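[SOLVED] Need 3D model of a two-part complex

Original post:
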Amino acid sequence: MRIGFIGLGVMGRPMAGHLIAAGHELALHRVKEASRALVEAGGTEAESARAAAEGAEAVILMLPDTPDVEEVLFGADGVAQGIGPGALVIDMSSISPVATKAFAARIEGQGALWLDAPVSGGEAGARNAALTIMCGGSEEAFAKARPLLEVMGKRITHVGPAGDGQTAKVCNQVIVGLTIEAVAEALTLARAAGADPARVREALLGGFADSTILKVHGERMIAETFDPGFRIRLHRKDMSLAVEAARALDLALPNAAAVQQLMNAAVARGDGDLDHSALIRTLAALSGR
Amino acid sequence: MRIGFIGLGVMGRPMAGHLIAAGHELALHRVKEASRALVEAGGTEAESARAAAEGAEAVILMLPDTPDVEEVLFGADGVAQGIGPGALVIDMSSISPVATKAFAARIEGQGALWLDAPVSGGEAGARNAALTIMCGGSEEAFAKARPLLEVMGKRITHVGPAGDGQTAKVCNQVIVGLTIEAVAEALTLARAAGADPARVREALLGGFADSTILKVHGERMIAETFDPGFRIRLHRKDMSLAVEAARALDLALPNAAAVQQLMNAAVARGDGDLDHSALIRTLAALSGR
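Solution:
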């Protein structure tokens, strides 16, 4: 299949690589030094988002944030100017669910198909083609995108109509962020009370407090190994998406807001590029520990 | 073994029943109508906590809160007046870790042994002898208590010295409470954004957001089945233990405090006797939903 691919960062590069390896013809926009290998592997360079979309059956975006997606879709020489009727836009970026619904309506309004398909699993998931992918869009869009998504991911769920993939991703990041903070509060309390946090964590594994976060991030907190993983700086962006969605929907999410603030503090303290489990450092520092 | 047992509530009754069935001689204090069957099964009545402790190798407490434990231990005709040297006090109540350390010092000061051994697993865990038990005390106290604890529970961990069992229990309740709130925020956001919360939950299972709470309590939230389970009223007591411990230790636990407040609101709204997963109702009501 001829595919336009825009967004060749840490995540996008291995994802595009898997598609090329699977035999697809990729038109790559914004090829830089780090993504040169994709051209050598068979990809072609497109001088604009519009050029990447022209003649493509699908255009895949993997961009940092909402304004980037809006610019690439609807800016000068954007995807919307190049995409043909019946072609498919798959936005795999993690961006605003509210903005996504508006983007989908505009793309569908000109006769193309839309799927929002944000991922979780990070750089390792992208490299190993093991991403979890949460999809929002029509049945038709999902069915058409699925074979491409299966080249990049493992757990692929069609959540609902356009925007629901981004909603699920934001919900995922809210739960992950708040559970990390919960484990950090508990282990900080354990240490302050004079108990061994490692023994407390062991006592809790297997009970109602058990979670992937207690297993994985709890261990990082105790060992104080904070190499990312997933950077606090990036998780902070996702918490901001939750807080902005809550404002747009007139919804109070008190602990999502509190965790966003702690992440602001973590970045201020110079921990923005540590793994999100390092939030325990900010929590401890709050009480001078 | 001759055992004094004080606290024959919903949890204490089946726990005492397992000990009698295992062949122990139980001296029961405060036998009421609901616990009459324990006397018929072979237990004897003790007219005071002191009388239950006299001649006993171990005294087990399963009481509602810190002041109850203090009164039964050190009040008029209390356990401290009856317990012999070398005998063991096992406090299986969920109470203050800070107060527990003081109680342990007083009991050990008169030549007896101390173990705090709070449980999780609720009424079902007590009935099925499947409680998780978190222990604080000396190696000697833990070794002596272990055969008794194995009659009542399955996962039994010696966390550390006296008080550490209660600290682990409070940490457990902090993580459980905050994770329930996290899942409630995510599912409320999903619904408000127009997505199907059940589909969002399915998309998240198996990823980093996965937890026993997302599986069990997330399902209750979606089905709106809030029969306890574990009552918000009781979990609120445990959150208060966390907040009080944080104050005693000069430690800021922002989200534990926020969840305690939401539980105050839940009780105020008449939801105190619903399962703690019903916290999602309070969160939704906060935004008039």
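Edit: Residues 168-286 of chain A form a domain with the N-(1-d-carboxylethyl)-l-norvaline Dehydrogenase; domain 2 fold (CATH 1.10.1040.10).
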